[in-house]
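Annual report, structural modelling task.

Input specification for the CA2 complex:
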Amino acid sequence: MSKTIFVLNGPNLDLLGIREPELYGRATLADVETLCQTAAQRHGFTVEFRQSNHEGELVDWIHEAYADKAAGLVINPAGFTTTSVAILDALHILQVPVVEVHITNIHAREEFRRHSYVSTVARAVVCGFGIAGYGLAIDGLAALTGAEV
Ligand code: CA2
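The model returned the following structure:
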């Protein structure tokens, strides 16, 4: 088993820290990547950190995680959370833990944000902790995969 984990980010998360800071905070996606690298190093993981505004590209990266025998996958599907059967089907292929992350508490927002296709395949879901949730998700992956150091 590889010690690589994939951290995938869906549409518009490239605008993190640039637009709507009152909702998503002032940290940028580059800050999130640094946070993930730091958390991953604690557990001996290396990280493939990516963002796309395109559903098919996210699907391709999930296939890549499968082909590379990644140890686990963290995903913030953003706007695809509530719509994407294609991402759900791709995640079903993985035989390693998937952790779903949301920066905000999706249950305290509009009703339509509450139904997540990804949650039906995720081993765990983290939401409402801001970008710290990514670090918690990686710590959780380490616990689930026995990679804790
Ligand atoms: O809370 C989250 O992490 C979300 O996945 C963020 C998504 C939203 O559709 C989900 O319901 C919850 C939206 C991501 C958009 O990111 C932006 C970042 C900065 C400015 C504008 C959008």
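The radius of gyration is 14 Å.
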